[in-house]
Amino acid sequence: MIFTSSCCDNLSIDEIIERAEKGDCEAQYIVGFYYNRDSAIDSPDDEKAFYWLKLAAEQGHCEAQYSLGQKYTEDKSRHKDNEQAIFWLKKAALQGHTFASNALGWTLDRGEAPNYKEAVVWYQIAAESGMSYAQK
């Protein structure tokens, strides 16, 4: 199966994994993304998804930061960690990721220690970016 991305156009999954292993953050994100879902790589694998998403997120990959933040909010994950979720979602939101802004608002609003004032700020940023359900 062939995947397409800005870095990985027309590469096989083995070639994408090879690039990820060499430190290519876009390839790392793609591998993490696919381990996070039932895909051509394998069945979902939370540990591998966290591993690859975190490598890409640490290099500043905005979508990886958002995805990693979302994974930290999952109730079923053994990695559930509200502080880490807020940390990674905020990094993505500060790069202009609208979904991260909304998710950050939601996490702050409904987390272990709700911070409604800050949640409203992030909901408003998402709403101003055109996210309709953040406008409610």
From TrEMBL:
Domain of life: Bacteria
Pfam families hit by this protein: Sel1
Endpoints of the signal sequence: none
InterPro entries: Sel1-like (IPR006597), Sel1_AlgK (IPR050767), TPR-like_helical_dom_sf (IPR011990)
Protein name per Swiss-Prot or TrEMBL: Sel1 domain-containing protein
Record organism: Escherichia coli
